[in-house]
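Progress note, project year one: complex with guanosine-5'-monophosphate.
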Amino acid sequence: MEELKQRIQTEGRVIGDSILKVDSFLNHQIEPEFILKIGRELADRFRGENITKVLTIEASGIAVAMAAGLALGVKVIFAKKGHASTQIENMYTAPVYSFTRQEYVDIFVSAKYLTSRDSVLIVDDFLAHGQALGALVNIVEQSGAHLVGAGIVIEKQFQGGGKVLREKGMRIESLAMISRMREGKIEFG
Ligand code: 5GP
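Model obtained:
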């Protein structure tokens, strides 16, 4: 998506050698018109797949997932984050390692909202090492729902998560793929 790449190029800030901040429209301030456009683009890539639910993870995936859900005319679920000290009834849960925070958290989705009758599109803002996406796939598998694929706004190709999941046969559509980046220079793949 050309407009997205241009916005990343002009407004993105690279922190260290692996974190990209796009706080001006996606990760802090949200630009509704542009996020709706991103949602429509993601929805278009998966049209005809009979999607019944969009699934994401709190917090920064929610805006984009909501935009994709609106474009597809389906409900949106966001997995909640927390620590599972005890097994929670009627919840699907999966651990996810955060490289940015360097800790494990658990994510939860109520079995009430995701069932074996669903066809699911996973949506997230970033794909890096694939931990978050892998945990969401795990949740979909627990529910018995059909996984259609994943729609990602920005994939950092050089962190390898997308490659691993695609090799397992998963369909992943990313609107911007970053092959390399450092301060002041972002290259798309
Ligand atoms: P992964 O689990 O693929 O390593 O990382 C994906 C998750 O971490 C996303 O849900 C996203 O919120 C966060 N994330 C990973 N890399 C970045 C980044 O460069 N910038 C921002 N803003 N979030 C990131």
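The two ends are 12 Å apart (CA to CA).
The CA atoms of residues 116 and 145 lie 4 Å apart.
No further modelling is planned for this target in the current period.
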